[in-house]
Amino acid sequence: MQSNLECFLDCTTPLVPSQFLPQAEIRSLNRLWHPWERENVEFFTLGDLWNCYDEWSAYGAGVPINLENGETLVQYFVPYLSAIQIFTSSSNSPTFREETELGECETRDSLSDWCSDESESEKLSRWDGCSSEDGGGSEQDTLWHLNDRLGYPYFQYFERSTPYARIPLMDKVAGLARRHSGLMSLRSVDLSPASWMAVAWYPIYHIPMGRTIKDLSTCFLTYHTLSSSFQDADMDIEDENDSSASCNSSSRCKQKEREGISLPPFGLATYKMQGDVWVSAWKNGQDHERLISLFSVADSWLKQLRVQHHDFNYFTGIRRG
Fold first, then answer.
1. What region, left, alpha or beta, does residue 72 occupy, with left being phi > 0 and alpha being psi -120 to 50 degrees?
2. How, if at all, do strands 219-225 and 261-262 pair?
3. What gap in Å lies between CA 298 and CA 267, rounded to an integer?
4. What pTM was estimated for this model as a whole?
5. 202: left (phi over 0), alpha (psi -120 to 50) or beta
6. Would strands 97-99 and 152-158 be described as parallel, antiparallel, or unpaired?
7. For residue 83, what are the β-bridge partners?
8. Residue 318: CB partners within 8 Å, gap ≥ 6?
9. CA 289, CA 138: separation in Å to the nearest integer?
10. What pLDDT does 99 receive?
C-alpha cells in the first residue's frame, strides 16, 4: 500500500509516449551525455511531454488521499510551469532566447556583454530584482561560458508572478512555443543532462467536498530532468520502488508495461505542509526521509547550476533583496 506522499508523486509523474532512435543516429550521440553502448535508444519529444499535462491543466490531477479516520478522498492539483532550462547538443540550434515579462527576447550575446560590464555584486543585485519572467540570466549565462559540458543554451523561463496570476502549464507552454518552436520539436536525446524543468502544483478542490483539512492546502514543487541521459538510472530506481509498492496507479502499471518513459521528480519542495496527511506514521519515517532527500537534491541541483529559483526560494522561506 502506498502512502499519500507516494501516491502524489505517482499521480503527478508524466508517462511520455516514446520512440526509438534510428540506428544511424545512435552512433552520432554525444558520448559525454550517452557514454553507454545500447542497441536501442528510447526518446520522447517535448511536445509529447507537454501533452501529458493537458488534462491535468484543464481539470487537475486527482490524488487519492487516505485520512487517519479511514476515509478516502481525492485531492486535485493544477500544474504550472515554474522554471525550465534547455541546453542542446548542437550549436546549430537557434540563438539562445530567454523569455521576458513582455514576451520579448534577449540574445545570448547581449546577455554576455551585459554580464562582462558588471561586477559580481551588481549582477546579483540586478538578478534578484528582475521582472517576473526573466529569471536573472546573468548568473546562468556566466556558467554557460565556464562549462561547455552543459551544452548550448536554447531557452529558459522562470515564473515570478503570484499563483493567482498564472495560467496552467499546458496553456503557458503553448504560448511560449509560438515563439520558440523547439519547445515542441526538441527530443530528449538532443538535450544535455543540465536540461530540467520545475512544476508547481497548487490544490484546487477535493471530492467529496464539505470538509476543511488544513494539510490539503499543501503546495508542491517537483523537479524533472528533460534529458535521456538519466533515463536508465531512473528506470533502475523505479524498478526498486515497484518491488516494494503495489501497482495501484495507472502510470505505474503502464510504466511496467514499458508503454512510455516515466519522468519521476528528482527533487521536491513543499509549502504549507502541516499535520500528518503527507507523512505516514506506518511508513516508519520513510516519507520524512524521502522528503528530506528530494529537497536536498533540488537544493543541490540549483546550487550546481547557480540558479536562483524564485518558487523554490518562496516555498522554503528564502527572501531575496
1. beta
2. unpaired
3. 4
4. 0.78
5. beta
6. parallel
7. 158, 198
8. 312
9. 35
10. 61
Mean pLDDT of 301-314: 95
How large is the average pLDDT for residues 184-211? 90
When pLDDT is cut at 50, 70 and 90, the band that residue 209 belongs to is confident
Taking each helix axis from N to C end, the angle separating 137-146 and 108-116, rounded to the nearest 10 degrees, works out to 90
Q: Spell out the residues 6+ positions from residue 208 whose beta carbon is closer than 8 angstroms to its own.
A: 73
How many residues would you count in the chain? 321
Element at 56 (helix H, strand E): helix 54-59
Q: What is the mean pLDDT of residues 280-292?
A: 84
What single-letter amino acid sits at 319?
A: R
Around Cβ 121, how many Cβ atoms within 10 Å?
Answer: 8
List the beta bridge partners of residue 77.
61, 203
**C-beta of residue 13 within 8 angstroms of C-beta of residue 253:** no
Query: Which cell goes with 113?
Result: 556583454
Binned at pLDDT 50, 70 and 90, residue 117 comes out as very low
Residue 215 to residue 203: CA distance in whole angstroms: 11
Q: How far is CA 159 from the centre of its chain?
A: 13
User: Which residues are CB-neighbours of 151 under 8 A, at least 6 positions away?
Assistant: 30, 33, 87, 88, 89, 191, 192, 194, 195
**In this predicted model, what pLDDT tens digit does every residue of 57-108 receive, in sequence order?**
999 999 999 988 888 999 999 999 999 999 987 655 555 556 644 333 433 4
Strand residue runs (E) in the chain:
15-16, 19-20, 42-43, 61-66, 72-88, 97-99, 105-106, 152-158, 196-207, 219-225, 261-262, 267-271
Three state DSSP letters for 209-258: CCCCCHHHHCEEEEEEECCHHHHHHHHHHHHHHHHHCCCCCHHHHHHHCC
Give the contacts of 106 (CB within 8 A, at least 6 positions apart). Answer: 97, 98, 100, 137
Q: What is the pLDDT at residue 250?
A: 44
Tell me, what DSSP letter sits at residue 111? H
